[in-house]
Amino acid sequence: MFATGIENSVPTIDNGRTRIDEMESCGHYRRWEEDFALVQEMGIGYLRFGPPIHRTWLGDGTYDWEFADLTFADLQHRNIVPIVDLCHFGVPDWIGNFQNPDFPERFCQYAQAFAERFPWVQLYTPVNEMYICATFSARYGWWNEQMQSEQAFVTALKHLVKANVLAMRAILKIRPDAIFVQSESSEYFHADSPAAIGPAEVMNAQRFLSLDLNYGRRVDSEMYEYLLDNGMTRAEYHFFLDSRLKQHCIMGNDYYVTNEHRVSADGATRASGEIFGYSEITRQYHDRYRLPVMHTETNLNQGPLGTEAVDWLWKEWANVLRVRNDGVPIVGFTWYSLTDQVDWDSALREKNGNVNPLGLYDLDRKIRPVGKAYKKLISQWRDVLPTQSMCLTVPIVMPDEVAEHHARRQRERAQQMVEATPTAPAMQESG
Question: Does residue 158 contact residue 104 with C-beta atoms inside 8 Å?
Fold first, then answer.
């Protein structure tokens, strides 16, 4: 599955007074038809995309579907498969932020309303990068609640993951063969001295928390104490253990040059650059969760030479092939995003209007060198099965096939599997 994305990040800054809306900054609201045409022109069949949550979800049971109706009808007409991104780093003003304990249940209702309105949609990322969202919002103090404490981080994290789990359950009621591509940042923390080994080990355990909870995997004893010491109850923890949804999931690993970190003895971190790379870190995540994998985000600034992004594309693709050749069932790759982005140089902490040349196209919708390289890569590799096995092909129903007999039969079989899933928790993996 070769993919790109239209980023719909909408965090707030300035204590909630200013919203950073990437769709608005990048001109997508005005040029969405042109953007979808560019996706087709590239030969890309999958698009990470979702309605802007703050403009769509207006209140409990109150929605404005106008933009979603227009855009998703066009995607369906073009036979582009959306991977629907429902919550990307922000919530509507009326929800407040990720400290709100009502957020998970209310978001579940929103997800169900979307699935009911667009029953032909099969692929979802209900909540994007839960670990990063909780970290930037409640540990670093950059976005949304702008808090800086371990308790605020755990609170945001448990609400984000619970929202994701409840949304998956709700969507499966509507679309029993739904597949969840859980896009999450794949991180690693390197100790820069013997005294930093302890802090680095803690961080390397914490990086798995969002997916451990999401997939119902037992955390290790240190992380269990950490969660309970910072506000998670035993009942909340067991809610995650008892959620049996892993069989509906593809693990999405996002990797950028900023995903690896050097850790000092005092626990301070700084960028390390690429040390292990995507293939090694993805193997670590796959060894832990044993799920099919999709490389769901990467990019790099075009750079002064104009070739830096192209070189990074080929490096990441070589890593994907390395992972595949090592036996990991990797099913897709994504350059994120379709167009340049705005203000990610400050991690969306400031609204400066700085254009970051990271896209396949610039904001005038002119193709960049990496766009040409990605188009060539797709044309050369699209017929090579990513898993090297017909038996492991992802059971995707294309938008133009949703009403056909085989698609109906697939949904019926999936419904039978959902109904047959035991409600009692099975034995969990050890941490």
Answer: no
The two three-digit tokens of residue 422, written as one number: 């035991």
What lies within 8 Å, CB to CB, of 230 at 6+ separation is 150, 151, 153, 154, 155
Q: Work out whether the CA dihedral 31, 36, 38, 39 comes out positive or negative.
A: positive
Instruction: Decide: residue 59, CB within 10 A, 0-12 exposed, 13-18 middle, 19+ buried.
Output: exposed
CB 181 within 8 A of CB 124: yes
What burial class does residue 83 get, using C-beta atoms within 10 Å of its C-beta: 0-12 exposed, 13-18 middle, 19+ buried? Answer: buried
The whole model's pTM is what?
0.95
In tens, the pLDDT along 246-280 reads: 999 999 999 999 999 999 999 999 999 999 999 99
C-alpha–C-alpha distance, residues 415 and 175, integer Å:
8
Residue entry with tokens 């509906």: 248
Pairwise CA distance, residues 380 & 21, whole Å = 35
Residue appearing with tokens 């992802």: 394
pLDDT of residue 431: 36
Domains and CATH numbers, the chain: 2-420 (3.20.20.80)
Decide: 337 and 6 in contact? Cβ < 8 Å.
yes
State both tokens at 109.
Answer: 């209702």
Residue (of 179, 173, 248, 171) closest to 216 by Cα position: 248
Dihedral sign of CA atoms 139, 144, 145, 146 in order? positive
Please identify which residue in the block is written with the tokens 């870190």. Answer: 281
Q: How far apart are CA 381 and CA 213, in angstroms?
A: 35
**What is the rounded CA–CA span in Å between residue 51 and residue 86?**
7
Displacement of CA 56 from its chain's centroid (Å): 20
pLDDT in tens, 368-389: 999 999 999 999 998 876 555 6
SS3 380: helix
Closest alpha carbon to 216 in 70, 378, 77, 424: 424
Q: Do 295 and 253 touch, CB atoms closer than 8 A?
A: yes
